Amino acid sequence: MAYTDDAVKAKLSALNETQEGIVTVAQWVMFHRRHAERTAQLWLQKLRDSPAPKRLNLIYLANEVAQQSRARRKEDFLIAFSPIIAEATAIAYKGSSNDIQQKIRRVVEVWRQRSIFELPIQEAVEARVDEIDKSRSTGKKPLLGGSLFSSSSGSTPSELQPLVPLQVAVSKATVASTASATAANAEYDKMHDPNTPLPTPPVHAARLSQLLKALANAESSVSEVIKSRTALIEGLEKLLATNRSALSKEQSMVAQLTERKSETEATKREVEDGIMRGLAAENSPAINHGDAGPEGEPISRPEVEALTPPPVEAITPVGSPKQAAQDSDFSAVPPQPQILGGFTLPGFGNPADSSLSAAGFPPAGLGEHQTDGSNGLHAKRRKVTHEEEDYARFAGGDLDADVAELLKQEGDSQQ
């Protein structure tokens, strides 16, 4: 059968899912490998117009042709399929059932394992498939109407919504342009390889024509990428300008809030200090007038008996000897301290200690412990007088005559 567009379309329409049918059509297509580019375009058009099960058979056909071309080192169909294989795989993968999608993924994995296509082409195919999976997972409607706090377009913030289609366009254009540019450059390098012998002029002209188409296709794809990326950059610059303006306002706001916070803290400290001073002023009168009565009048304190002892005259019996006489006798005969070995005996003080006070009473230290100047010991001071002289003065008072006589006799007997 001669090669025509109708013949190719008939072969593709008659393709079934059996291995024999796929191999038969693949052999006929490879036999006409000089028309590889046209066959690839017709194959892509048939893929777009076919239902999901038929698309899987067309992917199997492309897989068979590509693997046979790699095995036989006939790269005509590899070059023809490289610019369109990513888009074709995405068309077949999108909208298919889970079973068909798993089979398509298995074919893509085989391409990677056996290095059927160049690495950029392989990565482009996988990126398109992953993009479809992500869009399908994020595009599911949430149960019960979704969360109250989620936006209508998923997890993308509203500020970034204008950038989403721009980024998607850039991604798609990048994948297509990368594949086209890679295929065109590979064909160009092969055409200008000095180790490759020049074909006949007709074949050389056909290959040059095919190279021109590939280069034009790659140029157009790269131009689309440039256009899409320029639009994305403009959107990003607008978003950046908006955020810079918002940042400036927020910085001014935080400076104002910091100043007001410091001012409020100072006012709060002043108010707290005033409260503490007021509490101290209220508590002070309560402490000073703690003894006031229910009507605020002070309560009189109980009288306390004075601790000062009464004068000597108040406790001296009537008829006692005069104090002045005893004091004069006491001062007339000052006691002499006895010194033993350089120390003053206890019980005897210094002559200066026996002097009378200004009031005419014995010093307050008499009869109490005092510190001796020589030995530092506490000694009890005693009053030393002549008993006979005291008795004579006492007897010379206004006593009864009989009593005075008895006392005199008693004193004589003692002598």
TrEMBL record:
Keywords: Coiled coil. CDD domains: CID_Rtt103. Residues 1-133 form the CID domain. It comes from the Eukaryota. One of its GO terms (molecular function) is RNA polymerase II C-terminal domain binding. Residues 247-274 form a coiled coil. GO terms for biological process: mRNA 3'-end processing. Residues 281-385 are annotated as: Disordered. This is DUF618 domain protein. It comes from Aspergillus kawachii.
